[in-house]
Amino acid sequence: MLDHGGRPGARQGEKTGDRHGEKAEFRTQFVREPSALRHHPALVLNADFRPLSYYPLSLWPWQEAVKAVCLDRVTILAEYDEVVRSQRQSIRIPSVVVLKEFVRPQKRVAFTRFNLFLRDGFCCQYCGAKGDLTFDHVVPRSKGGVTSWENVVAACAPCNLKKANKSLKASGLRLRKPAREPSAEDMHQIGRRFPPGHLHESWIDFLYWDAELEA
């Protein structure tokens, strides 16, 4: 955040001299709220010049990007035309920044509804339909099935209704692919298939999407 003088301000309870604490806090400053990214978001690259995340794309609000620049944690690779001014200096708002220290990716992927849908490419694992999805236990819970990566898949409402409390064989449905726990790299690669609706022109050289971009 910025204080009234335009300089990076410490968060409540944060010791500005605690470099270890700052690094720990800095590692987790992903911003996923669309309202915070409405104006001049910055694409954040790891020290290897790859995005920290593709889905959601690793973006910071301009305030966080400017703070990171002032704390010498990132290098600016591209800028917007707009300028933010303080009493002491002016700085063009960063549009692409790269971390000066490599952040090691998490090894395990959290088992959440969003990550499950992402693993399955946002399509029903029985018929391939896209759109409104729910999830289904391959082995029904009433028959001892557990809620895990290996036993839960994305499913459309018709397929979920058809399968109901039956086994795969009894329902006549087949999985498009075996359900398994994804690695962080798996999710990174899958996320590349789903570019966001808005890509600033300064980001393109640093992104490698599998889907075609509209002109």
Task: Please explain how this structure is put together.
- With 215 residues, the chain is α+β, with helices and mostly antiparallel strands.
- Among the domains are: 19-107, no CATH class; 113-171, DNA Binding (I), subunit A, CATH 1.10.30.
- Helices cover 20% and strands 18% of the residues.
- It contains 6 helices and 6 strands.
- The chain has helices at residues 19-27, 62-70, 113-119, 157-163, 168-171, 184-191, and strands at residues 42-45, 59-60, 74-85, 90-99, 133-137, 152-156.
- The strands form 2 sheets. A 4-stranded mixed β-sheet has the order 2-1-4-3, covered by helices on one side.
- A hairpin with a 4-residue loop joins strand 3 (74-85) and strand 4 (90-99).
- The longest helix has 9 residues, at 19-27.
Question: What would you call the shape?
Answer: elongated
Total strand segments: 6
Termini separation: 36 Å
- Helicity, as a percent range: 10-25%
Number of DSSP helical runs = 6
The biggest beta sheet, please? Answer: 4 strands, mixed
Structural class: alpha+beta
Q: What is the helix/strand order?
A: HEEHEEHEEHHH
| Nearest-integer average pLDDT | 81
- Main sheet strand line-up: 2-1-4-3
Radius of gyration (Å)? 21 Å
β-sheet strand percentage: 15-25%
User: Low-confidence parts lasting 5 or more residues at pLDDT below 50?
Assistant: 1-34
